[in-house]
Amino acid sequence: MAEDRFAIGIDFGTESGRVVVFRLRGGELCGTAIVEYPDGVIVQKLPGGPELGPDWALQNPRDYLLVLEKGVPRALKAAGVKAKEIVSIGTDFTSSTILSTKRDGTPLCLLPAYRKTPHAWAILWKHHAAQPEADRINQIGRERNEDFIHIYGGKYSAEWFFSKVLQVLNEAPEIYENADRFLEGADWIVWQLTGEEKRNTCTAGYKAMWVKGLGFPSREFFRAVHPRFENVIEEKVGTTFYPLGTRAGGLLARWAQKTGLREGTPVSVGVADGHAAIPATTVTRPGSLAMVMGTSLVQMLLGTRRQSVEGICGVVEDGIVPGFWGYEAGQYAGGDIFAWFFEHGIPKSIHQQAHKLKVPLTKLLTKRAARLRPGESGLLALDWWNGNRSILVDADLTGMLLGLTLATRVEEIYRALMEATAFGTRVILEAFERAGFPIRDIVACGGLPEKSPLLMQIFADVTGREIKVARQPQLCSALGAAMHGTVAAGRAAGGYDTIFEAADNMAGIQASCYRPRREHHEIYDRIFAEYRILHDYFGRGSNDVMKRLKSLRKELTKESILCKD
Amino acid sequence: MAEDRFAIGIDFGTESGRVVVFRLRGGELCGTAIVEYPDGVIVQKLPGGPELGPDWALQNPRDYLLVLEKGVPRALKAAGVKAKEIVSIGTDFTSSTILSTKRDGTPLCLLPAYRKTPHAWAILWKHHAAQPEADRINQIGRERNEDFIHIYGGKYSAEWFFSKVLQVLNEAPEIYENADRFLEGADWIVWQLTGEEKRNTCTAGYKAMWVKGLGFPSREFFRAVHPRFENVIEEKVGTTFYPLGTRAGGLLARWAQKTGLREGTPVSVGVADGHAAIPATTVTRPGSLAMVMGTSLVQMLLGTRRQSVEGICGVVEDGIVPGFWGYEAGQYAGGDIFAWFFEHGIPKSIHQQAHKLKVPLTKLLTKRAARLRPGESGLLALDWWNGNRSILVDADLTGMLLGLTLATRVEEIYRALMEATAFGTRVILEAFERAGFPIRDIVACGGLPEKSPLLMQIFADVTGREIKVARQPQLCSALGAAMHGTVAAGRAAGGYDTIFEAADNMAGIQASCYRPRREHHEIYDRIFAEYRILHDYFGRGSNDVMKRLKSLRKELTKESILCKD
Known about the structure:
Two copies of one chain form a homodimer.
Chain A: E1 6-12, E2 16-23, E3 29-36, E4 58-59, H1 61-79, E5 86-93, E6 98-101, E7 122-123, H2 131-143, H3 147-151, H4 161-171, H5 173-178, E8 181-184, H6 185-194, E9 199-200, H7 201-207, H8 219-225, H9 232-237, E10 241-242, E11 247-250, H10 253-259, E12 266-268, H11 273-280, E13 288-293, E14 297-303, E15 314-317, E16 325-331, H12 335-344, H13 348-357, H14 361-371, E17 380-382, E18 399-404, H15 410-434, E19 441-445, H16 448-451, H17 453-463, E20 467-469, H18 476-489, H19 499-506, H20 518-539, H21 545-564
Parallel strand pairs in A: 1-5, 9-10, 13-19, 19-20
Antiparallel strand pairs in A: 1-2, 2-3, 4-7, 6-8, 11-12, 13-14, 14-16, 15-16, 17-18
Helix pairs in contact in A: 2-4, 11-18, 13-14, 14-15, 15-17, 17-20, 18-19
C-alpha cells in the first residue's frame, strides 16, 4: 500500500519551472517535467513594449501557469502514476519575485491597460533597479532603529519585497494605486491553484520584514518612507501568514481538469525555493550548513536562538524548519558567473581544441583548470558580478579580476572565478563562526554540485571543510516543496505529520563527499587573506569606486534613453 | 642628382627586423623588407634546451644577422635602388636587449659549451626575471644616494642593462666569467656590420647609468652591489660612448658581399628603437610629446635642463636630439594587451558574427566599442598586464579589471583596456606637467595609430590634447635610424650635417589629427580620478596584493619545477 503513495513538488525557478513526482517512501524520483518560460528573464525590452533600464529583470506570470498546465500532466505520465495516488502538491518559488494583482489575483500586466508598463509585470528576484528604494528603507529603518535592520544583518536588500513595491510606487504610481494586492510569486501560484490567498511565513519573514508574534513594522515607519506607503500592509499586503506545511486548500476543479490531478488534492502554502531545499538536504537540526548552489548561492543554518550575525540576510523563527531559527546568507551570483564566462570569455581556439579532441568545452576547460595549483595563476577575483548579498548586502558592488598578465590563460581565469565564489562563501562561514555557530560540515544541493566536481573540491579546499552532496542535488527544492506538501496532507490523508518525519523518509545524501586537502587549504589561507583585504577595501567604504562607476553608468544611460526618444 | 640619394634604416624589433630604403629628399619610403626572427621571443623553452622560468624572454642573435642577410637585398630590390645610391646605413634596436660575447663579438650562446645555458642568450628587453637584481641595485643606489636613482625617476628597472648582467652573475657565474663583453644589441649589430665596437650614448644613458661628462657610478657602488661586480665597467663594458649620428665605421667587406651594399658605406652608431623614432615624428624641440605606440608605449619629451620628474625612466643629455635633455617615460604594455585580449578574450560568437557579416573581427569589435560612450560600461582597468614602467617603475604590478557584471560584453572590456592605456599615459603627462614641462600636443608613431583610430580618439579624449600622427607612423624608428645614418655620412658624403637638417628634409606628420571632444573629456576626467585612486592604492604600497600574488606564484612555480625533476 505505502509504495503507491506519491507527492508532487513544483519548483518555479529563474528560467523554467520543474514538476517532479516523488515516492513518499524513500523520496525516490519517479517522474519529472521541465517547462521553459517562453518569455524567460526579461532584461532588455518588454515583449511588444518599451526598453527597460539597466538592472531590470521581469517575468511574465502566464509562464508560471504554463508550468502547471504542461508540466504536471507530463510528469504524471513520466512517472506512470495515477491521480488518485498523488497525496499532495507542494510548490516553491524564486523570491522575492513580486506580483501586483487585482482583488481576484489577476496580475496587472495581463490587463491591456498596463501591458506596456514594466512595473506591472512580475518583478524577478534578480531585478536590481530598486537600490534607491532599498537605500531609503535602510535610512529610515536605521534612523528609527527598526527591528528588521537587525534581523537582516544591517541592511534590507534591493532584491526584496518592499524595495520593489516602493519602486513601483515611486516610478509608476498608477500601478501602485490600481494594484489591490502585492504578493510573492510563491503565494500567488498557491492562490491560483487553490483559490485561497494564504501567504506563507517563509517569504514574509525573509523578504518582507514580518516577524512571528510581532507582525510588520509600524504604520509610522512606512509613512516615514513615503507618505502614500503608510497603509501598504492593510491595503495591499495583509497580516495573516501561515507556517510551512500548512494546507492552503484543495486543488480547484479547473486546475484539476487542466492538470489531470484530482480536485481537492491538498496544496501546501508556498515557500521560497532555497528554503524549501534545506530539509531535503537532510539539514533539519543545527550544526550543518546547507548550501544551495545554482545561478546564485544560498547558505542556510538552523539555530536555537535569535542572534546577530554580520551581513546575514535573514533570521526567521520557523522560517525553514519549525522549532528553529532559520539563518539565511547568500551570494548573488554563483553559476551565473560561470555561465557569463562561458558565453563571453572563451576564445575560439579553445572551442576548436575541444572540437578536435572531441570533448565538451566545459570538460576541456575544467580539466585544464583542475591541473592548476592554488596560487599558480597569480589571479584573484571578487565574485560580485551580480553585487554582494552576504555579508555586505550591496547590489551595487561589481566584479573584479586582478593579477592579469600577458601570460594569463583562459583556464586560469575560470579557476579564479571558481575560487572567488568559494572565498565569498568562506567570508559567510566565518561570519557565522564569529557569532558562535559551530559548523561541522556543509551539505550542498542545487545544479552546481553535479555540474562541477572541481568547484566542489575547491570549496572544500578553500573552506577547509568536508562537503557532502544531497542525494538529488538538483531536485532538493522540488523535493522539499513536495515534503511540505505531504505535511499539509498529514498522516491521516496518506502524508506525514511533521517535516522531520518527511525528511527521515524522503531526504538523503550521497555516499561520497569532498574532503579538504591540507596543502591546498594552506595556500588558500594565504590567498583568502588577500581576498579579505580587497573585500573590505571595495566593500566597506574605503573606496566606493564600484558604486560610483555604476552610478555614472546609470546617469549616462538615462541621458541616452532621453536622447533616443 | 639629389633625387638619387637614399639611406637605409634597419629597425630590430621584438618579433622581426625591418629594412627600409628612404629617399633623402622628402623621406619617402622606397622599399622595405621584413624578416621574422625564426626563434621569435623565447619564453618557455630554449630551442633544444631547458625550460625557462616565469618572466623570462630571450632571443637568438643569429636571427638579427638573418635580418641583414635576407632583408637588405630584398629592400634594395623592392626600392629599385643601386648600392652606389645608398649614402648610409643606420640601425635601431630594442633596448635593453643585452648580449654576452667573447672578445671578437661572438655571442656566448653560439658557442657549443653555453648553448644550453639560458643566461648566455640575448636577454630581451621584456625579460622580467631580474627583479631581485633590480631591487638590490636600487637598495644600494638609494643607500649611497647615487645619481642614477634621480636620473631614472627613483628606480632602476628590472628591464635594464645592469639588472640583467647582475642576474647572469648571480645565477650563471660561469657565463659572467667567460663573457669578455656585455653590451646592448644596438651596439652589437653595429660591431657586426663595421668591425668596430663603438657604443652609443643613448642606450648607455637610458639603460646603463652612464652620464655625459661623469661616466658610470663608482667601483665602490658596483662592489657594494656584488663583490665580483666591482670591475664590471673596466672588464666587460668600457667607458667610451659615441653620440647619435656618429660614424661607427664603414660596412665590412663580408657584409657588403652578403647584403649587396658597397664596402665602406657609412654606418652610424646604434640607437634604441623608441629614441630613434622621435626626430622622425618631427619632434626635435621642447613643447611636443612624442609617443611611440607599439607592443609597449613610450613617451618622450625634450627639455633644456635636467630636472626631477616622478617615475620618468630616464633623463639623458643628448640622448635623443643633440643639445637637449631627452626625457623618457613608458608603459610596459600597449598593443600587447590588445593582442592578448584578441587571443584569449574573444568568444566564438563574435568570430561567428564577424564571419557572417564578412568583416574582420577587429573591425566588428572596434565598431561596437566605438558606439559606447565613456563610462557606459561601468568598467575600469589598470593597464599593468606587463607591469608598470612610468611612473611607478615596478615590473611586479599586474593588470586589473573592475566593474564586471553579468551584463558585461566583450566590446566593453575591449574599450576599457583601450581607456586604461590612455589613463596610464595621462598619469605620465601629468607627472611632466607637475615638473613644469608644458605639453602643447602629442605626436604619435608606431603600429597602433594606423591600426586603431578609435584608440587614438580615446587618447585625445582622455588626455584632452590634440594628437597628431607621424607621416609613416610604423616606420619612424627605421626612418630615425636612417636619419642618424645620413648624419654619420655628413653632407660631404651626400648626407646631412645635423639631425635637424635631416628632420627638416625627411620627417613629417599627417594632415589630419585627433581632437579631444569636450563632453567625452569631461566624463573621462571623472573616470580618470577613479583610475588615479586605484593606481595609487595598488601601486604605491597601500596594498601590495599584486606583488604578493606574484611572489606566491613564483614560489609555487619553483616548487613545481623541482617536483618535475
